[in-house]
Design a protein that fits this description.
Layout: H1 21-39, E1 43-45, E2 49-51, E3 57-59, E4 67-76, E5 79-80, E6 86-89, E7 93-96, E8 106-117, H2 127-132, H3 134-146, H4 156-179, E9 181-182, E10 185-186
Antiparallel strand pairs: 1-8, 2-8, 3-7, 4-5, 4-8, 6-7, 9-10
Helix pairs in contact: 1-3, 3-4
């Protein structure tokens, strides 16, 4: 398991002469953000919570801090809701559109699945995601580093090879995502942790 960014460092020793740790860290964070945003492969199915009559907004609280790129599906008592009935507000909130605010309260009646991405300055580490997508994150980080002009570690040939490796892992992430479709939405569980209490507010 990959529990911290420094777990990548032993695999970044070769072909990066003189590259400081801060540069490696920045590019690893950038690679994580890029992969998550482009593939929507960092997902979480949040725990069921109470549906409150006439409440329009529900703050989404994933296990690991991240911004909501997309709401993949919303269910009320197991019934999937039309994507036309809700939207993402401020990258952290489920908002029902005015004409579709539920008028009935249901205990443990609301469940949401979200696709996440880290904020630019985020220090979030997601062990399951990092372990599953280790090769992709590493390859893109190496590509970004080796593509830096006027550095001792600038290496266009290796940068191109690592970009090709990233593209393969990118395609794997996309295939995994779409193989898990279910009617009306996507049912992919690459990284999400379920059953967490307090997933909404």
């Amino acid at each position: 398991m990959i529990y911290k960014y420094s777990d990548f460092y032993p695999f970044m020793v070769d072909n990066l002469p003189g590259c400081p740790t801060i540069e490696k860290l920045q590019k690893l964070r950038q690679a994580f953000r890029t992969l998550a945003m482009e593939t929507e492969s960092w997902t979480e199915e949040l725990a069921k919570v109470n549906l409150v009559a006439n409440q329009q907004d529900y703050v989404l609280r994933p296990t690991f801090d991240g911004l909501v790129k997309r709401i993949m599906w919303v269910e009320i008592s197991g019934g999937q809701q039309s994507r036309l009935h809700y939207e993402v507000k401020d990258q952290r909130t489920l908002r029902w559109k005015t004409d579709w605010i539920p008028a009935t309260s249901i205990t443990s009646g609301l469940q949401v699945k979200i696709a996440l991405y880290p904020d630019v300055e985020s220090k979030t580490v997601v062990p399951d995601f990092f372990t599953l997508h280790f090769e992709g994150i590493l390859a893109l980080a190496l590509n970004l580093l080796q593509d830096m002009n006027r550095t001792k570690w600038h290496n266009p040939a290796l940068a191109a090879k690592n970009l090709a490796k990233y593209r393969k892992r990118y395609n794997v992430a996309l295939r995994s995502k779409y193989l898990g479709q279910k009617a009306g939405g996507l049912q992919m569980n690459l990284t999400g942790r379920t059953g967490r209490s307090g997933a909404f507010a």
